[in-house]
Design goal:
The chain is α/β, with parallel strands linked by helices. 52% of the residues lie in helices and 10% in strands. It is elongated.
Length: 290
């Protein structure tokens, strides 16, 4: 019995040592915020002009309502998963206001060629997972694939910054990001027309056409809010569907609505000595490989 007890204790000690070493290695992998806080280029892939641009914009945003957008680049994740690293980093930095939890982290791991957008749960209403993924696909990943990190980070930053400013009606100037090219948009529009016609034909010759159209309408509205930059393609899909399904019988069966948001205001930049506001996240966001 003493023999078994002795070895069982050794096994427990070894397990505790292993867990401790694992925890310590993970802690070491997480970088610390620099004095600028909003820009932490540990992978050395962002030019100075882009760093200054992000810093000034983030300071202005934080001064208005406590929202914080932080950019972090790392050479490697040191064996951690992107999601775990991002979550730990976000919480250790304390990004966003402590009460509003309105922080956003843009993380790029150079060696693994991965990017992650981590969103504080106070911003998840205006930046759901699908939208953060789409913003990466459109505004960031095409640049990252060409190793043009400064341009991709700045463009992605502008996408998130402008979305926050517009949807929260903040009195700040913003720059619209560079979107998809014309050929890509043309292809998406053609796909929208074709899919609308196909769905319209199915609906027209379906016994439960009204129910089919209701489901289509719900899906359309969801896509409308998730994919605002594809507004034209979605509208052509809508008209193609209802024209095919109903011809001139009841084209007013479905209704759409539109909304606009303004912008304005100015800000003064500053630098140095910034820190997080104590915000947290529940793991919302999206990841991409480039």
């Amino acid at each position: 019995m003493k023999f078994l007890k002795f070895h069982s204790n050794r096994i427990i000690y070894l397990i505790l040592i292993f867990l401790s070493l694992t925890f310590i290695s993970n802690v070491k992998a997480i970088v610390s915020p620099t004095n600028n806080f909003y820009v932490n280029d540990y992978a050395n892939i962002i030019d100075s002009e882009t760093e200054e641009y992000i810093l000034n914009k983030s300071v202005a945003l934080n001064n208005v309502d406590g929202t914080q957008i932080v950019v972090v680049t790392v050479p490697s994740l040191d064996g951690m998963s992107l999601e775990d690293y991002s979550l730990e980093l976000f919480r250790s930095f304390g990004i966003g206001d402590e009460e509003k939890n309105n922080g956003l982290l843009i993380l790029i791991a150079k060696e693994e060629r991965l990017s992650r957008i981590e969103v504080g749960y106070g911003l998840e209403g205006i930046l759901p997972d699908g939208k953060t993924g789409r913003f990466q696909d459109i505004y960031m990943i095409p640049y990252f694939k060409e190793d043009n990190f400064s341009e991709g980070i700045r463009n992605g930053y502008d996408a998130f910054y402008s979305e926050i400013v517009k949807l929260n009606n903040l009195d700040l100037e913003y720059t619209n990001p560079k979107g998809t090219n014309n050929s890509e948009l043309f292809g998406i529009t053609i796909l929208g027309i074709f899919s609308g016609i196909v769905l319209g034909v199915i609906s027209r010759y379906t016994k439960k056409r009204d129910k089919f159209s209701l489901v289509y309408g719900i899906v359309f509205l969801i896509l409308f809010f998730l994919l605002p930059n594809y507004f034209g393609a979605l509208i052509t899909n809508l008209f193609a569907y209802f024209f095919t399904a109903y011809a001139s019988i009841d084209m007013l069966y479905f209704f759409t609505f539109f909304g606009g948001r303004g912008s304005g205001g100015g800000f003064n930049g500053t630098s140095g000595g910034f820190s997080g506001g104590g915000g947290s996240t529940l793991g919302g966001g999206s990841s991409r490989h480039f």
